[in-house]
Input
Amino acid sequence: MAGIDLDRPWRLHPQVAVRPEPFGALLYHFGTRRLSFLKDRTLLDVVNRLDTEPSARAACLEAGVAPADLPRFGRALATLAHGDMVIERTSS
Amino acid sequence: MTVQTQARPGRLVDLFERGLDAPICLTWELTYACNLSCVHCLSSSGRRDPRELTTAECKAVIDELERMQVFYVNIGGGEPTVRSDFWELVDYATAHKVGVKFSTNGVKITPEVARRLATSDYVDVQISLDGATEAVNDAVRGPGSFATATRAMENLRDAGFTGFKISVVVTRENAGQLDAFKAIADAYGAQLRLTRLRPSGRGADVWDELHPTAAQQRQLYDWLVANGEQVLTGDSFFHLSAYGDSLPGLNLCGAGRVVCLIDPVGEVYACPFAIHENFLAGNVRSPGGFTSVWRESELFADLRHPQTGGACTKCQHFDSCRGGCMAAKFFTGLPLDGPDPECVQGYGADALLARGEVRPPKPAVDHSHRKTRAVPVSIGLSPPTHAPVSACEESPLAGFRP
Output
């Protein structure tokens, strides 16, 4: 799957609940009633920062993602976006 | 969906095998009372248990689930909607960020209830239907149950509730109706959910006649693979993964690891299909409540050890089917570290033959409706033929005429 547009602002879907776990996190979407597994604590950190950072790229870098790893995190975020777990933040 | 960034992270199935600090979801049977007497009822329901958790006790459990961040509960029974505080508990759970999915035979899903349900983002409804035709359904669920379920589905559709679930237990009688079930679900804007017939509760009495044949299991597997994530299974057919590709889902027995059951009187069992003292971990009424049962019970600690021995671990398919369903083995009298009775490699059928005539264990808990009615006692039914002799007459034989 291609990555998301890292330079746009993103956010967690408001109907998604996050439960941190030793291996990463469980995400549950109350709208689609789907469960997702984040198998990575850094990815959880990225997801938690999406709401407040100006772009997905900034969220990744703030979470300590090395620039070389950005494409992999972009693809992971794209998977989440595909399941409606994260959505684009519109400036309103 | 699993989201990862490394090429080779640990497998979820290995992580979950050791259990989580809180269940991902759990089944909560709110009452043993039921208006029906389905022949395969997992919980042998029928009559209400007088020790049922009170409204306040149920709310305390919900408070714990909120603290543990359990995303949702699968509420069942019995027929949960016959509890007079059912809607109060549903509202309490959703107000405390615990989503609710409840299973019902539809008896209380009136047009008004359906309209109310349609407005909630946090409540999902599962209508039980075990035949795509009235004859097949009612043979298992009882006369009138097809009509009741159909009326409930019409009410949900008319209220605009899309995506509710139609939940089917696959049996020998309905295994040929999978396309018809899918068509029903599509017609109502619902989603089909197929689950496995377990020999639990009253299911033990009918399992031999009703469990799908080997050929039907193969057709079911192919049908599930073809329909992919369109059809839900609650992970219940992971024993079929030994045919080849894994089915969508975790493909793991989650008992005591990521799921469990709370029964109407607060007992916590490892899974909804294992209401038996061997799988009883504790009670939510004990000090420490549900949380300490989940985190500290010895039984659950045992279940969280990966299986290392037994006949199945030597099988080349063990990695895909993981030995199948613990409850199915237990209630057919098979050893827990051996094959599932419906093992697709046929080892289960062999094990059942080798078992001989040993009587499988019976659950201690049975709330079935009593089938034999008490004979009415007839005393003094004949009308008086004459007036009392006198209100003051002292002789015990006064007025007696043999």
